[in-house]
Amino acid sequence: MGLWRGRIRAGVMEADLWLVVGLGNPGPDYAGNRHNAGFMVVDVLAGRMGGRFKAHKARAEVLEGRLAGRRVVLAKPRSFMNDSGGPVARLRDFFKVPLERIVIVHDELDIPYGAVRLKQGGGAGGHNGLRSISKSLGAPDYLRVRFGVGRPPGRMDAAAFVLRDFSAAERRDLELHLQVAADAVEMLLTQGLQAAQNVYHARPAH
Question: Which residues form the active site (predicted)?
Answer without folding.
Answer: 35 (proton acceptor)
